[in-house]
Design goal:
With about 575 residues, the chain is an alpha/beta fold. The chain is about 30% helix and about 25% strand. It is built from 19 helices and 28 strands. The strands form five sheets. The protein has a 15-stranded mixed β-sheet that branches. A five-stranded parallel β-sheet has the order 4-3-5-6-7, sandwiched between helices. It has a three-stranded antiparallel β-sheet with strand order 8-9-20. A hairpin with a 5-residue loop joins strand 1 and strand 2. Helix 4 packs across helix 6 and helix 4 packs parallel to helix 11. It is globular. Bound molecules: adenosine-5'-triphosphate (ATP) and magnesium ion. Adenosine-5'-triphosphate binds next to strand 14, strand 22 and strand 23.
Length: about 575
C-alpha cells in the first residue's frame, strides 16, 4: 500500500514538524522544564494538570466538557477543577488518608472519577482506576493486590458488586459513594455531602518525582493482568508525548474515547490533555456510531484518539454517516491498543479526509513510545517511529541467550526499548521476578514482535505468544488479519495457529462478517482465495470459521489466546477482562 504523503500545509505548525532536529536536541531534563515542579524538587501530576494553568491565567477555560448519557453537558473550567479536586483532597485528608494511601475508583465515566483521580494525586495518594463493568472477582483481585484503602464508587455498584465482597478486603477503610439516594448504606459515606462540606483550598502535597502515583492493571490479553506501578515523574512523558504524538495545541478540543479503567484513558484521557491545557471531552455513554459522529461535530473535536475496535465498528456502518456530518474541525486522528489494519487507515481518508495515525505503547510504558506523528508520511500498517527521547530496536535472541539488535531491515524480532523515560513502570506490584524478566542486556523487552524498515518505520507482527510457525515461516497474525480485512465482507478477524503434524502449525482465521453477508461455503472459498492471492499459499489461512463476535477484552482487544484455547480444548486461563463472548 502506498504511503500517504503529507502536504506542506499539513505539516506547518505541527509540534513535531522537525522530527530529526527535535529528536537530536531532545532531553528529558528539558521536557521537565516545560512543567512547573516545585522549588524543593517535588513534582505532582495534579498540580501540572490543573493548578499550573489556573496560576497562568487559564482558570476560565473549559478543562473538561462532560457529556451525560442523556447528552446534557456539564463544563468544568480549570478553576472549577482546581476547586473540586482540592475539595476531594481535603475529604481524603479529613479522613486521615493522605500520602501513599491507595485510592481506587470503580465507576463509569462520571465527573467524580476525574475529580477523584486528580484530587487523590494532589493529596499524595496513589490512584488505581477499575473498569466499571468488572464483576466481583476481578475487583477483589485488583483491590487485594494493591491493598486498596479507599474506594470511590456509586451506590448502585456498591450494593450490586462490593457489599458482598467487602469482608474479603481487610485493607479497605473508606467507601465513598456518589449518587446516594438518602442515607449512605452502612459502612459507607456520601461523597457529595463530604465534598460540599470540604474547603476548596488545598496545598498540593509535595510528592517526590519517584513517589508512586498510579497503579494500572494491564488488559489481560495474554494472561493474568499485571499491576504496573507508575510515579509522579511520569507526567513529564504524558505531557510531551501528548504534544508530539497527538499534536496537542492549547486551542484544541480533544477527545480520547478510552475509559480511565485502562491506561490510555488515564494517561491520555486525563493527564496529558490537561497538562497541555486543552479542552477535553468525556462521554459517559458507551460506543454508538451516531452518537460519536454527533459529538465530533457538535463539540468541534479537533484531535481524536480512539482504538481499532471502535474504528472497525464505524467501518461496519460505512462512510455515509461520516459524510452526513460537518467534521471540518477535525485536524488529527489517532489510534492505539491493537494493530491498526491498513484498510482502517485508508478508511479514515475516505470517511474523514485524513488517515488514522497509529501509535504503539503499553500499560508498562505509561505513555506513547512509537507513533505516526502529524507531520510524517503515513505508511498504512506501520506503527510509526520512536518519539524523541525513546530509542527502540528490534532484538534477536542469540544461541547463548544474549540479545543482538537486528541490523538488517525487516528482520522479525522482539520490539525492545532502552529504559530511562519517565513514565516507564517502576515495578509489577508484588511480582519482582516477572518484572526483572522484562530487562535483558540493557533492553526492556515488550513481548511484542515487530520489524523496522529502512526508513526507520516500525511494523507490528504480533505478540510473541501469538506468532505462528508454519513450515519454517514465522507468520504474524496481523498480516493475515489485515489481508482478510480488505475483503468487503469482513468486519473483524482473529488469526491463530493450530498444531499440525506436517508443517508445525497451520493458520486458522475466525471471521465476523459485516451486516448483509452470510457465512456460507461460497463466501469461505472466496475468502480463502482472496487470502491466498494476497499472501501466498504458505501464509494464507487454511481454515476459516465464521463467528458472530470474537472474544475481546473489555478494552476491545481480540483475545487470540482464548480463540486458541477453545479451539484446542485447553484451559481458558484468566478471563477476568473478557467482554463479548458470543460465539
Ligand atoms: P496483558 O499484558 O495483560 O496481556 P495487554 O498487553 O493487552 O494485556 P496493554 O498494556 O493494555 O495490555 O496493551 C499493550 C499491548 O497492546 C501491546 O503490547 C501490543 O501488543 C498491543 N498494542 C498496543 N498498541 C498497538 C499498536 N498500535 N499496534 C499493535 N499492537 C498494539
Ligand atoms: Mg501486555
Amino acid at each position: 500500500m502506498q504511503a500517504i504523503r503529507k502536504r506542506p500545509e499539513d505539516v506547518a505548525g505541527a509540534n513535531l514538524e522537525h522530527y530529526h532536529k527535535t529528536r537530536t536536541e531532545f532531553s528529558w531534563e528539558q521536557a521537565r522544564k516545560m512543567l512547573d515542579g516545585f522549588s524543593d524538587g517535588a513534582l505532582n501530576i495534579a498540580h501540572e494538570a490543573v493548578d499550573r494553568h489556573v496560576a497562568n491565567g487559564l482558570g476560565d477555560k473549559v478543562a473538561i466538557r462532560w457529556i451525560a448519557k442523556d447528552e446534557t453537558r456539564l463544563d468544568f473550567t480549570y478553576a472549577d477543577l482546581k476547586a473540586q479536586t482540592n475539595r476531594f483532597a481535603n475529604v481524603l485528608s479529613g479522613l486521615g488518608l493522605g500520602k501513599g494511601a491507595r485510592v481506587y475508583s470503580f465507576m463509569g465515566r462520571a465527573p467524580e472519577l476525574y475529580i477523584g483521580a486528580l484530587g487523590a494525586l494532589k493529596a499524595g495518594a496513589v490512584f488505581c482506576p477499575m473498569f466499571s463493568a468488572f464483576g466481583p472477582e476481578p475487583v477483589t483481585a485488583r483491590m487485594s493486590i494493591g491493598a486498596a484503602e479507599v474506594l470511590i464508587t456509586t451506590e448502585t455498584l456498591y450494593k450490586r458488586k462490593i457489599a458482598a465482597i467487602r469482608k474479603d478486603l481487610p485493607d479497605l477503610k473508606e467507601v465513598l459513594l456518589i449518587g446516594c439516594k438518602g442515607d449512605a448504606p452502612e459502612g459507607t459515606r456520601d461523597l457529595g455531602a463530604l465534598m460540599a462540606g470540604a474547603s476548596p483550598e488545598f496545598a498540593v502535597v509535595h510528592t517526590a518525582p519517584e513517589d508512586m502515583a498510579l497503579l494500572h492493571f494491564t488488559s489481560g490479553t495474554t494472561g493474568r493482568p499485571k499491576g504496573a506501578v507508575h510515579v509522579h515523574e511520569a507526567v513529564v512523558a504524558h505531557h510531551v508525548t501528548g504534544r508530539y504524538a497527538l499534536d496537542l495545541h492549547e486551542d484544541d478540543v480533544f477527545w480520547c474515547t478510552a475509559d480511565p479503567g485502562w491506561v490510555t484513558g488515564t494517561s491520555y484521557g486525563i493527564i496529558s490533555p490537561l497538562t497541555n491545557g486543552v479542552t477535553m471531552i468525556v462521554d459517559e455513554a458507551e460506543f454508538d456510531a451516531d452518537r460519536w459522529y454527533r459529538i465530533l461535530e457538535t463539540e468541534k473535536v479537533s484531535v481524536w484518539y480512539t482504538a481499532p475496535t471502535a474504528i472497525r465498528m464505524l467501518m461496519k456502518a460505512g462512510i455515509e454517516p461520516a459524510k452526513q456530518h460537518d467534521l471540518s474541525h477535525l485536524r488529527f486522528m489517532s489510534s492505539v491498543g491493537e494493530p491498526l489494519n491498513p484498510e482502517a487507515v485508508m478508511w479514515g481518508v475516505a470517511a474523514f479526509g485524513m488517515p488514522f495515525h497509529d501509535n504503539w505503547w503499553q500499560t508498562e510504558t505509561g505513555g506513547i513510545m512509537i507513533a505516526n506523528y502529524a507531520s510524517m508520511d503515513v505508511k498504512p500498517g506501520s506503527m510509526g517511529k520512536p518519539l524523541p527521547g525513546i530509542s527502540a530496536g528490534i532484538v534477536e535472541k542469540m544461541a547463548d541467550g544474549t540479545l543482538r539488535e537486528a541490523t538488517k531491515p525487516m528482520t522479525i524480532g522482539q520490539l525492545a526499548l532502552r529504559p530511562g523515560w519517565p513514565s516507564m513502570m517502576r515495578a509489577y506490584l508484588h511480582e519482582d521476578e516477572r518484572y526483572n524478566k522484562c530487562f535483558v542486556d540493557g533492553w526492556y523487552l515488550s513481548g511484542d514482535l515487530a520489524m523496522c524498515d529502512t526508513d526507520g518505520y516500525f511494523w507490528f507482527v504480533g505478540r510473541d505468544d501469538d506468532v505462528i510457525k508454519s513450515a519454517g515461516h514465522l507468520i504474524g497474525p496481523f498480516e493475515v488479519e489485515s489481508a482478510l480485512m480488505e475483503h468487503p465482507s469482513v468486519a473483524e478477524v482473529g488469526v491463530i495457529g493450530i498444531p499440525d503434524e506436517t508443517v508445525g502449525e497451520v493458520v486458522k482465521a475466525f471471521v465476523a462478517l459485516k451486516p448483509g453477508f452470510e457465512g456460507n461455503d461460497e463466501l469461505m472459498l472466496d475468502l480463502l482465495g482472496h487470502a491466498r492471492k494476497r499472501l501466498g499459499p504458505a501464509v494464507a489461512p487454511k481454515i476459516i470459521a465464521f463467528r458472530k463476535n470474537l472474544p475481546k477484552t473489555r478494552s476491545g482487544k481480540i483475545m487470540r489466546r482464548l480463540l486458541k484455547a477453545r479451539e484446542l480444548g485447553l484451559p481458558e486461563g484468566d478471563i477476568s477482562t473478557l467482554e463479548s463472548d458470543e460465539q
